[in-house]
Amino acid sequence: MRKRVVVSVDLDEWYHCRWATGAPHSRWADTGTFFREHYGSDRPAGELAAPTRRILDLFDRHGVRGTFFILGEVGHFYPDLVKEIAARGHEIGCHGYHHVDIGLLGPDGFADQIRRAREVLEPLTGAPLRGYRAPNLLLADYMLPVLRENGFRYDASVCTSRSLLGKDFGHDHLAQNPYRFSERFSRPDPQGDFVEIPLPVFPGLRLPGSTGILTRVIGVPWTLIAMRDALRTGDAQYYFHPYEMGPRPDIPLSARERLFLRRLGPWMEGAVDRILGRLRGWGVEFARAGELAGTLPAAS
Ligand SMILES: [Zn+2]
After folding, report:
1. C-alpha distances in Å from residue 141, one per residue of 103, 190, 200
2. How far is the CA of 240 from the centre of ligand 1 (A)?
């Protein structure tokens, strides 16, 4: 059977990065504050649309049908873009309402984010949301009953990396390929009703491999080695963001932020083009995350 690769996109803008908003030490308290200070408005400037359309064209050229994890906030500001993504054959998944660490939300806050995200996103496509990706890939097991109650069937947030730059994902003992689970993200259960589609890491070092951020910071071979390693044992996933194909934000940046935002724009567009071309050359099948989750055998 051909190995499957989920290509997924978190439909975030650069100001959703953790250093900017959504984490305890972010530069701005929330996106509303950021909009007022940076744009002098109560809404974003529309920078998300152009790079997203370039991604859609890139996917068309490679025959990729992918999964776009979208914030309720983004659906609110860009309803036509969300409709266009769905109309062009891609799955819409949920990325919460605001891009905020789970530790800042707590159980009630999380339930509220999911409810509000569904209210915005589901009417745009007429389809129920089935998949979730946590902002900043940070999870808590109390999220699971909330996701279940809201009709979700899979998660795609587990990063099997060891801790990096003070961020501990807590999942470095897990396999890199999709698995079933039921009560805890970090405890596979072959009979579980929920599916996890994790993010592979660079072999040996156990640092994030199949994410656009590391593709840009280190290079395309880094990501290809991680993908190839994960595909030896099962299906795999690669993900990136539209802001990575856009211009660098026009604000003063620290050295660490400049590193994090290295090689945005045409370089990254070329890099994803090369990665998708190589995956095709390996003979993988591109699958939307929901399709992969829906067909993962119960005893695997
Ligand atoms: Zn995100």
Report:
1. 12, 18, 21
2. 9
Residue with token string 């569904």? 118
Distance from Cα 10 to the centre of ligand 1, integer Å: 5
Structure tokens at 256: 């660490």
How many angstroms separate the alpha carbon of residue 12 from the centre of ligand 1? 6
Give CA angle at 271 (68, 210), nearest 5°: 55
Residues bordering ligand 1, an ion, CB closer than 5 Å: 10, 12, 135
Task: State pTM to two decimals.
Answer: 0.96
User: Domain 4-294 - what CATH class?
Assistant: alpha beta
Q: Where are the domains of the chain?
A: 4-294
CB atoms within 10 A of CB 167: 16
pLDDT tens string 91-150: 999 999 999 999 999 999 999 999 999 999 999 999 999 999 999 999 999 999 999 999
